[in-house]
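Q: Joint fold for the lines below.
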Amino acid sequence: MEVVNPRSALLSNYEVLALLRELDSDHLAKTKTALRIKKEEEQSGKPTPNATAIEEEICENLRTVEVEALQYLTAEYQPIAAQSDAGITKLVKDIEPYGFTKAEKLQIVNLAPTEPVELYVIVEELEDRLGERMEEVLSHVRASLDPNALPASTAEGSSNGADPNPADPAALQVEEKITTEVYEAETWIQDTNYIEWDDGGEGAGVEGDLEMDEE
Amino acid sequence: MFQLSIIKDTLPILPAAFALPPEQALTAAINKKYANRVLHDVGLCIAVFDLVSASEGRVRYGDGCLWYKVTFRMVVFRPFAGEVLLARVKSSDEDGIRLTLGFFDDMYVPPAYLPQPSAFDPNERAHFWLADAGPEQGTHELLDSPVAARMYIDKGEVVRVRVEMDEFYDDEPGPPKASEGVRVEREQRRPPYTVTCSIAEQGLGPTSWWKAAEAVLEGEGEEMDQG
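A: Joint structure:
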């Protein structure tokens, strides 16, 4: 093995996602064909000689990294759900005149900053370089995102967590799970406290605490 | 975060795969060898991007394989220094925070790169940041602070981090020495690729902090305008 060029180009998350999706659908199609051939074999009762040749061995390592990377890239805190080919091409053209470096542009595409504080961590000396034009950059980013998919991506991490967005039931389910888990943990802690304090003969104060927590 | 690396290698194709078109068989062979593997000083390989060139397959004496000299482009995970990433908190302990991206979880935030002043709460098993405290306060004073004022970095939270540096270790054990006899002693092996991140900066850390902070700032601004 010889590494000719360790970094010939940088890829955006969106490009990697597109490649992984392609691999994933290829894999699914192959599994389906394999299954279909198997079924046909069973029905006809005689093994087809070609079946084993078509059935390509599945590479475990590739599947692992592919599925895990897909999960990371499509997580609800990534802006990728709202991005599109055309949107990104336009965004890159729009932010051309601001004099960003290549790395900064890549990160603007990857993270799609819509808040000043998000842009602040990506671009060095943001105020000196952009000044008043910062808001223009943010509006370019907002324009590049698909507004229909936006609520799901911007609602992430909000402290109240209640996002009545029917478009993303999976995310909602996850949130519900988290809250129930937290609730269970809390009651457990309260229970242990209660027993401890009851032994010490100071139950009254704890009851008061419990009432506070329940409110 | 991801990059393309050009790599050259000589690979065998087993006779079982001769029925496939060569480029397909080669891609499968490369993925089998490289996917989810850390290459020293290159990064974590994800998948083949495309093939650049390949020689004619040659049969060597001794096996029935076709050997191809192939140059290909690989998608590699290797965030550059200074890059900002989104990650989840995997676990926390006294030595810092461990982060995960799902497919890669050897990412660490050492205590020095936590927002100051911060301390580790052994009861909650989480680090917290006390934004209002002065820098001269010690760990004991920080732990005496009211819980409501602490900003915890909890497990599972999404954090924005800046990559500070990355390190590769090649800890392959050498062949066992005859004089040592058979020892079943395994020393702790370092992960082959670790990324050190920082959240000690404005705008970094749990994304919820900055969402909340922004709302407060805007609220204050409106109040001041009204006043």
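Q: Anything notable?
A: Strands of chain A lie at 2-11. Chain A has eleven helices and one strand.
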